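Researcher: Sequence recovery benchmark, item below. Answer with residues only.
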């Protein structure tokens, strides 16, 4: 059981994806409405290099279209409806809608267009943004382009997580929930690195994660947040 004086963040995984189509404006805004402390979204790029918000590299799962996101121009992508309901938003549209109200974690899936994201962040501000990736070269590039932007590394690897985080100079370590340990969290905290885990979808697991000392977790079930608050655990900001 997590101590009742712990502070934590609950991050909406792909927005409030149980209520609205994942990674859409409606999902992001619903997450804010439901009290999420942050929202995680996935970033890929259109054929002309525009950052768009979608998880998969192609449209088969979300729209039944056998085409890659990267081969389609923005005009074409805008005609697609996610699960037949909502359009694919651009990063600019999401940032304008969120307007700094909650933490926004950008999971950058592909390398090569980091400058286009950096330009958007520079024009809109990035005080409440974390740029994240599984790819170290993406993180290194953002640290060159925007040295003050917060960065995060996703990893499955318990054995190399701290070493990788330290060498990259990141602010947040994003760990799969089943590899986290109290010792790993303590080591990260001693280096000044926050630890957020993914994806935690039941209350018992959420309490277990907080008992390890993590700073927060991604979830598809935002109801977990209110259950933890009712139990005396306090929400926080990054």
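Model:
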């Amino acid at each position: 059981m997590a101590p009742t004086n712990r502070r934590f963040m609950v991050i909406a995984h792909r927005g409030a994806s149980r209520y609205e189509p994942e990674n859409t404006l409606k999902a992001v805004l619903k997450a804010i409405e439901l009290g999420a402390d942050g929202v995680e979204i996935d970033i890929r790029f259109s054929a002309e290099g525009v950052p768009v918000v979608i998880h998969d590299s192609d449209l088969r799962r979300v729209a039944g279209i056998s085409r890659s996101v990267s081969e389609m121009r923005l005009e074409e992508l805008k005609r697609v409806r996610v699960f037949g309901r909502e359009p694919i938003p651009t990063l600019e549209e999401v940032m304008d809608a969120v307007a700094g109200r909650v933490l926004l974690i950008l999971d950058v899936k592909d390398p090569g267009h980091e400058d286009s994201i950096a330009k958007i962040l520079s024009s809109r501000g990035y005080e409440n943004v974390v740029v994240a990736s599984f790819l170290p070269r993406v993180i290194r590039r953002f640290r060159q382009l925007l040295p003050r932007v917060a960065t995060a590394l996703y990893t499955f690897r318990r054995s190399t997580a701290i070493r990788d985080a330290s060498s990259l100079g990141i602010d947040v370590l994003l760990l799969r929930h089943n590899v986290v340990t109290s010792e790993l969290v303590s080591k990260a905290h001693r280096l000044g690195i926050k630890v957020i885990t993914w994806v935690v979808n039941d209350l018992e697991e959420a309490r277990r994660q907080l008992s390890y000392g993590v700073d927060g977790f991604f979830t598809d079930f935002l109801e977990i947040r209110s259950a933890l608050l009712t139990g005396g655990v306090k929400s926080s900001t990054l």
